[in-house]
Amino acid sequence: MDADYKKALQRARRDLAHAIQQRDEWFLKIVKAQSAVRALAAMVGDAETELDTQVGISHVVQAIVNGRTGTISAPEVREGLVFYGYDLSRYANPASMISQTLERLADAGKIKRTADGKYTRSVFYELKALGEQE
Question: Residue 13 gets which letter from DSSP?
């Protein structure tokens, strides 16, 4: 009986890891779409805000880190934010905001801090990778 529960727990953890990965992929798609809307609206002189739902920097940073198989530094996270079109102009010091966000996410266990001062994906992504190998 215990073996059945353990298998069910492993399966549930893999399912959770997969759902988290999908969520992170959607956050990045939303940021990209919002960036496109802003750019196109500016080109046609449309000042109306299409969506008031800006994805928070924590969600996007977490998605970028968890989307990598290796480690990533704060400057590389910034490059990822720029690549996806995340609007960093609202921050007085984007580099500091990114570093603080990485630290908060690591402290919360949502990503892992490595010995060399970089960051890597959370345990949920590792569980998903293990599940795919079985």
Answer: H
Query: Average pLDDT per run of 10 along the chain, which is 134 residues long?
Result: 88 84 89 86 74 78 91 96 90 95 94 94 66 51
Nearest to 121 by CA among 78, 67, 81: 67
Count Cβ neighbours within 10 Å for each residue of 76-103 and write b for 16 or more, e otherwise. bbbebbeebbbeeeeeeebeebbeebbe
Domain count for the chain: 1
Range of the domain at 19: 2-133
Helix (DSSP H) and strand (DSSP E) numbers for the chain: 5, 2
Query: CATH number for the domain including 112?
Result: 1.10.10.10
Residues sharing a CB contact under 8 Å with residue 13, sequence separation 6 or more, in sequence order? 124, 127, 131
pTM above 0.85, yes or no: no
Residue corresponding to tokens 């969520």:
23
Separation between Cα atoms, residue 57 and residue 77, nearest integer Å? 11
